[in-house]
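Hey, sorry to bother you again with one of my protein questions. I've been puzzling over a protein and I'd love to understand its fold better. Take your time with it, there's no hurry, and the full record follows here:
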Amino acid sequence: MSGKNRLTATLLSFLIPGAGQLYIGRLGSGLALLVATVMAVAAIVFYAGTGGGRHVLLIVYLGLAVPVLYFLSVYSILQATSGSAAEPREEPAAGLTRLQGFGLIAAGVLLLMFVRPGETVSGWLAVAGDYMTGGGLLLIGVLLVLRRETYGMYRLGRVTAALIIITVGTLLLWDHIAERNHIALLGQWWPVALIALGVEVVVAALGMRQSRKRLAFDMGGILLALVIAVAAYGITQFSGLPFKWIDQWKAEVGSLSGYTEEKGHRYEKDIVTAPWDESVASVVISNPNGQVLVREGDVQEVQVKATVWVDLDNAGEAERIAEKSVVEISGSDKMTIEAKGEPYGANGAMKPRMNLTVTFPRMPDEVLESPEAVAGAEEAAGTAPPQESEAGSNLPAGQVEAAAEPENGPQQEEQTAAEGQVNSGGSGSAENTANTVEAPTGTESGQTGSEPQVPEEEEPSGLQKMSITVLNGPVDVAGVRIAGKLTVENTNGEIKVQGTGGSVKASTKNGGIQLQDIAGDVEASTFNGKVEAVRVYGEVVVSVTNGGVALEDILGRVEAETKNGEILITEAASAVNADTLNGQIVIKSSTVGGNWDAGSAVGEIELYTPENGSYTVQGSVTFGSIETDLPLEISKKTIQGQIGDGAHRININANSSIKVYKYQP
């Protein structure tokens, strides 16, 4: 074969699997590679477009098969054209030719089913896809066993690879039939593969002494088995992958190994108190190991109750540790409450658990920024029922009305008109004069040429900031009226906050976050856990690595992001930005008060919007379908249209299905 023809054949094989083989006359191998590649691509498109989550493992295997087919195409053409002379073209027997023809017919019929499926055919293919993964792996494993000897050489490791693939296929089939999750056993029993390989080496060594066959390690078979097993385990057990505890190691969880739990001997410490007045503007609470509960109560000073747990068998030594574990309160305008547990054990590696209950005197309502914060704090303390807005949501009516009314309301317009009458010298009647606002005067003598006096701003009174730091243990803050900002930092434990007057910033490495009745902005983040927020009157920014997000009755802007988990948003009055790498997004709101952006790499997106709103919709999907009962236009893989005046924009970007429905209360 000439160099020009060799280059052409190689280039064709690189562009289209099997094309080079057909070019040089190798019809059998060329057609097999070409048909296999086209079938794999068609199957990927079909199964990804009809509920990709159900057949995600099959899609991954087919996606890995495509580059393998390209490699085999180029490799085989290089082998076939490596000789200096042109090799003779294939002249298959008549029987083989007929078999190839029937194979092409069957492949064409199957391709037609993938490309133009009806409802019945789609159901058949979906069921076939459920069993195709496990059945295909069993077939591959059997073929590897049958071809353990090639070209007079024994492929060492091929039997082990076949056993791994057969095991994975069997587990997948059994899990689907019995609705079990036995594939998770791979994470516990994978060392058995090394034992099987060792047994195969011993048996092969004994057998080769008699047959004198050559040995060759089957690196390709072993790699194939590893890819199949790792993909099966990684996809089916995605939520249990080790990246959870990897993220926790980032959070210094390794340093918490000596932090004990509620075990051993329990001791109730005497209540520690400190005076309290309005000059205290900031509070810092620190507890390395243990729970922190913060409340308001009918007390005149700050009270801290501590419960100490010492995990020792020796009661006398445990009592000594408990006595030396203390709570210290220091500072005046900036108060610090710190739990200091006495280390014990070898090299002082153990820390006792100290559960703290901190009680503050009831704050006056004046320290809060809004009456809604008072309502939230009273509700958290159990002294007032929650208010409901006229729209039916749980947002306080005052907040909803304040958001709906323009800045220059009717009362302000009347006041402005009255001020205009005074400044212009208008007299009016005595009744009208009583309702007007007095004009500022320059001096007591009534001179009008001087500048008006600007009153000095008063410094805010009451508790403005609170910071809580815990390494191991939950944090629960309820009914504490903080006018400024509450900051909670945790390493290993849940965070709960309810009824605060200001903003909240909560972060934990391992644990969920629950927020309720927050008058200000919210910023919440966790590596492993779910974030929930209900009735927040400011902006909400949420970041999660592994876990879901659930938000309800949010008055301000919403920004929610998670790598692995679903996002559920109910009643968002302003702009929304929701993004997840792996999970579903559902947004239900009776109003669209800002731009919405929703994106999911793997997962459906469902939106429930008002049919009488004012917004435009623009969305597209890579795979999957689009559904709507609103007057929107669906064209192939896109959805677009306008509701009302189109004042706001809704942008949807998904790889799976998109559903846009009418909001139903």
Summary: Residues 1-116 form one domain. DSSP finds 16 helices and 33 strands in the chain.
